[in-house]
Specification:
It is a single chain. By secondary structure, the chain is α+β, with helices and mostly antiparallel strands. Helix 1 packs antiparallel against helix 3. It has one domain: Alpha-Beta Plaits (2-Layer Sandwich), CATH 3.30.70.100. The protein has a 4-stranded antiparallel β-sheet. The chain contains 3 helices and 4 strands. The radius of gyration is 14 Å and the shape is globular. About 30% of the residues lie in helices and about 30% in strands.
Length: about 110
């Protein structure tokens, strides 16, 4: 894989309010797939805990949403994109907690 330069990574972790609900899980996954259509997203990955077991690994979340932007301005634009705002409006009732890690190149 080639290394992207000057990329802005926005990594979001979701904990479901009803973690045993297959319907809620399916609805959040569908919402993330719709969200991936936001125009400033360069690349994305929807994930779940890998099942690796070590003391330093947190596997308590339901989904991770890792998106790559060309720059910080594109990420900022994404925050007010109607697709993103619709996702928050339609899906925020599904999660009990969200944690975000943003990173940029060194």
């Amino acid at each position: 894989m080639s290394e992207d330069k000057n990329v802005f990574i926005h990594h979001v972790f979701f904990w479901l309010a009803n973690p045993k609900s297959t319907e809620d899980r399916a609805q959040l996954l569908a919402g993330l797939r719709k969200l991936s259509k936001a125009v400033t997203i360069k690349r994305f990955h929807i994930g779940r805990p890998a099942g690796t077991l070590r003391d330093v690994i947190d596997t308590s979340y339901a989904f991770s949403w890792c998106i790559f932007f060309s720059n910080a301005a594109d990420q900022e634009s994404y925050q007010t994109d109607p697709i993103h705002l619709r996702f928050v409006d339609e899906c925020s009732h599904l999660w009990s907690r969200v944690t975000v890690y943003d990173s940029v190149d060194i």
